[in-house]
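Q: A reviewer asked whether we had any structural model of the full assembly, not just the individual parts. We don't, so I'm hoping you can provide one. Inputs are below.
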Amino acid sequence: MTTVLACPVCGGGLVMNTAAAVCASAHSFDRARSGYLNLLLSNKRQSAEPGDSPAMMASRRAFLQGGFYDGMADAANATVGEIVAGRSGSRAKGPTHVADLGCGEGYFTGRLSRALASAEPLGPVTYGVDISRPGTRMATAYSTDVHWIVASLHRSPFLPASLDVALSIFAPIDAADVRRVLRDDGALVTVTPGPDHLDALRIIIYTSVKPHPKTPTLMADDTYFEHTASTRVCYPIHIDSPVQIMNLLAMTPYYWHISRATKKAIEELSTLSLTVDVQINVFRPKARA
Ligand SMILES: [Zn+2]
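A: Here is a predicted structure for the entire assembly that you could use as a starting point for your response.
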């Protein structure tokens, strides 16, 4: 199986077989029984189990499976699909490699893989990468076609200049590292909150709601990338389940900062109508310094 995965010890290419991934220097990484590959070296872990907890991943999964974010995910997948379709003619040999960086419990990556496969029969090689081992283990349930990888996003597990498209949905981005692993003619696609994202929830949380910044930090920092396209996706959703309202709250950064009284007020809601508002941005790599 041809991949563009890199050995976390020596940086050499990894060859995948059913049980493990092995580099030319015989560094070997066993595949977990559920199918993911752990390329996070234990000495690079900052805690015993870094990343989001199983409980957070479970809330996230339940909310996403409610379909509330499908509209924005489909728009992001269409953007990636157009880039991949535009590249297939220009690639003389070999498949296209697409990675979802910060894939969490895998919902978006699974949809991406299916969308790309239906657009092109052979399909690109798709990777889902996250530092959370519980999340990546959950993600394996969505697809056996995706390479699910536990790894750091500050040293992402790919060969230099090997990825055609990197996708980041609501995930932190290490621009220097993404630039390192992207091909010079590749693209980075990001999905970030727009100014009205989850407005009704933020109104409850803050007396005066601060809009999300319109300019993601990546756009402000043009060291590695040039911002080439932006699409705003904005639509209303209606949540009529208290459990799903709490699942949504648990997915947001607000969860950790609200008072007990505010949390209780949200717990008592039976329905919530709010706006999904995101920016889908395309960045092209600048020439390497
Ligand atoms: Zn190695």
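A: Points you may want to mention in the reply: The chain has nine helices and eleven strands. The pocket of zinc ion is lined by residues 7, 9-10, 12, 23, 25, 27 (CB under 6 Å).
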